[in-house]
Amino acid sequence: MCMVIFAPIFAICAFATCGGYHGHLQVKVDCAGRRPNNLSINIDFGYPFRLQQVHFKAPMCEAKREEIVFLSGDFSAAAQFFVTVGVLAFLYSLLATVVYVFYQNKYLKNNRGPLVDFLVTITFSLTWLLSSCCWAKSLTDIKTATNPTEVLLLISACREKEYKCAATQEPFWSRLNTSAVFGFVNAILWSGNIWFVFKETDWYKTGQRFPSRTSSRKRSSEMRERLYSESSFEQPDDSFGPFRQDSITESRGDFDKQVQRQASINQSQVSFSLPETYLGKTVIYEKENKIASQGPVIFVNEM
Q: Which residues form the signal peptide (predicted)?
């Protein structure tokens, strides 16, 4: 759900801030009276950042003519790769949204949908990370190539000490910096979504059905400890004091009452055909008319 909501938004922000960029640089050349002073030169560049094709005309103060100057560097590969990944991620996230909402049953059928989604999510997370790193490096090189100091060195008149050159306007880089940040945010977002997609696959469900040996051993050890603790609790321990013994005696007294109740019920259910018994007085028996022991004698009357 997180990817469905935020992935299209961050993908649009990433490729839109990079693909729609236009930079403007303005420099001024002063020929010290040989030509009209304060000549402003406008230099425009933008996506896909093929700077070697960007050119402008600069005055040659000594020859009183103009020269054509080209910037240096081609950074189109990294920029186009970054924008392509953003567009594809945006389209796939829209497609995934439609499938999640309207075709949930077909998505879960035969586990093909979650498996394909899992592999595609891994691919996009890796490509986002790779493209963001390449674009961040290229952005640093673009800033260096369009630095006013580097651009002024390309003009022959500015290499002379008697002429004065300066930059009156520099390009703004906040938009391109934002695009690089959105690239890494997308990489983090898609990498975090791998776990949620993996939980929908059959690989995760199979692991839940058949736990590993370590987990089963852990459960068996916990069960043994639980049984050992219960058995040790049943045995009286003098170290716990009189309160422990009183609780044990009370529990035993309840158990004896239950046994007596069950015995009385069973005795009431016995057939009356059995011989009746009663207790007589205590009789003392002895070998050769000598007292040996004492105890109750049971007399049986036959019915």
A: 1-16
